[in-house]
Amino acid sequence: MSDQLPYTHRDLSWLSFNQRVLQEAMDPSVPLLERLKFMAIYASNLDEFFRVRVASHRNLVRLGKSTKRELNYDPKVILRAILKEVNAQQEQFSKIYSEVLIPALADHGIYTRRRLELDQKQEAFVEEFFHDHMLPFVQPVLLVKNKVRPFLNNGALYLVIEMIDRVNVETTYALVKIPSDELGRFITLPTTEEGKHEVILMDDIVRHSISWMFPGYDIQDTYSIKLTRDAELYIDDEFSGDLVAKIRKGLSKRHVGPASRFVYDREMPADLLAYLKDTFNLGRYDLLREGRYHNNSDFFSFPSYGLDDLKNSPMPPIAHTVLTQAEDFWKAIREEDHLLYYPYHDYEPVVRFFEEASADPTVTHIKIVQYRVAKVSRIMDAICAAVKRGKQVTVFIEIKARFDEEANLAWGEKLEKAGVTVHYSFPGVKVHSKVAMVRRVEDGVGKLYTYMSTGNFHENTAKIYSDFGHFTTDKRITDEVARLFSYLETVKRPKQSFEHLLVGQFNMRATFIDKIDREIKFAKKGKKARILLKMNSLQDTKMIEKLYEASQAGVEIRLIVRGIFSLVPQAEGFSENIQAISIVDRYLEHARVFMFHNGGDDEVYLSSADWMTRNLSYRIETAFPIYDEVLRKRIVDLMEIQWADNVKSRTLDAKMKNTYRRTSQDLAIRSQVESYYYIKRLEDQAQVALAEEEN
Q1: pLDDT tens string 257-284
Q2: pLDDT tens by residue, 188-245
Q3: What is the 3-state secondary structure (H, E, C) of 107-165?
Q4: Which one is catalytic: 208, 432, 458, 590?
Q5: Fold of the domain built from segment(s) 10-306
Q6: Are the CB atoms for 259 and 156 separated by under 8 Å?
Q7: What CATH superfamily is the domain 321-496?
Q8: Is 500 a catalytic residue?
Q9: Whole-structure pTM value
């Protein structure tokens, strides 16, 4: 992309996304315990960001000036900007926790206690708990200059103790591990008052117990630290060798990788920080100030004490009427296409697809691409059972799915032992498609059934990720899905091109560009031209440049982007016709939707792909058209609901201020709630229609 075109670096835009997550923790309309969860999500996101993205920038800085020309940006400048923004967010995080959430918890009878706030009974409990449960895990170590430095485990919590040696009367430092990974982070204290709950962080139990571990020393103060290590496996671009073996080797080293972030208590004195920097061989870009407590992703496990009124009100998944009540599941799919929208819909029809296929004697083949797999999975159990029943079962497992590599390898081994034909990652390419296919023999002829989705085959994330799923027997789709599986199994490019599916490595990028060009032509003729795109991330420079071109031609462009967003809307001379919003709410917006007005003959595609260079150029992705007019209208309706959101949507702009978007609509529109009731109305109508048919 030309240097003159407006563009936001992907990692700075990602930090802006994580700021939106932090906004949810600040939002007084969000139930209190859910706000703590958003604190955990924010912290968990940031951990992964440092382990992968920041670690990569640090490696680029080490390579020196030569990378600046190749990257078209200076990694040192970006790294400085990242650390500046993260430091500001961390101060905000600490204020939210101490000045907002702690008092709010106290208002509801939940008190977090520090060690100096304990009464006599609680002190006795803490001391007993320490000796009975924690003593084997704390691992106290004296830090002696110029001696072998202790190894800091990735992501583990430690206390650094500043103390005075009574014999030599000199300052000494020591290190103690906080065993939260073994025993949990939050310990409930005894209390006699009804309706009152008191909790202490394990950090403060260790602080209370320090003097017993270091007799002969006077404890001056304690400060918490944590080291995050580089978790990138650096295998995406390898084109030869045993990829499975390389990933196993990489996983074995992930927890001993170089530092990518050293988090320390911002109250730590400068001389102690300098001592630790020298002791653990840390550089200036490794250091990050935080508050008294780290590993704030542990807030996922904060005790709720049965206070359900401090959580989101239930929105139980809605049964898909036709697929759930169908006596003949396959007939129901043959008769019409079906669209599901999770987590508003129940995920059961997807599980049923595999369980029915496994048990059905007329099914000969089952094929599926697995990117992220649940540890306990009925889908995978059904696949294993299908092999025992004599079916040909093929599973493509993407073992480069970051932080799921180990789980996916374990599932691959289990499936192979069960007799499943397992194919693993291509070197240099990730397979990110969410596709499954079943072949049945009906009247002596093979019939293909396909399920395609914007999300993974993962029963757990289907409860919290917002995704579309689509069942069809439309030959235009099923034949090309079969072609895609043949390619994944043989790595031989199909002789026939893809005409209906958009497939990464084949026609996806070019087709999207063609569709934008078509809208440009309509606009130049003075006709209505519109594009709506919903995705997780928009970073690819060529696609951004094409959207700028469309905006300049007069195409009305609406973007709904959850995370990375490098395009700059409303930039004079470039993007006046582009508006963009982001929605962060109780469910993670994960669906990818691409809508083109096409002169009034709307085209709608659902996809696994974001518009990032990696998705469009280095992955096997799929986008699939919705040909059924009724289902297409539902998707359009749901996207209009999202665009109308004036409660949880933020305006995306060059300043990255994440301003809550307000519309001219007086009625408060919270799109996730509105979507739930939209689906509920549809299924209620389907129930009525089904009852009338039976009568």
Answers
A1: 667 788 999 999 999 999 999 888 888 8
A2: 999 878 889 999 999 999 999 998 899 989 999 999 999 887 755 444 443 344 545 5
A3: HCCEEEECHHHCCHHHHHHHHHHHHHHHCCCCCCEEECCCCCCCCCCCCCEEEEEEEEE
A4: 432
A5: polyphosphate kinase like (3.30.1840)
A6: no
A7: Endonuclease Chain A (3.30.870.10)
A8: no
A9: 0.92
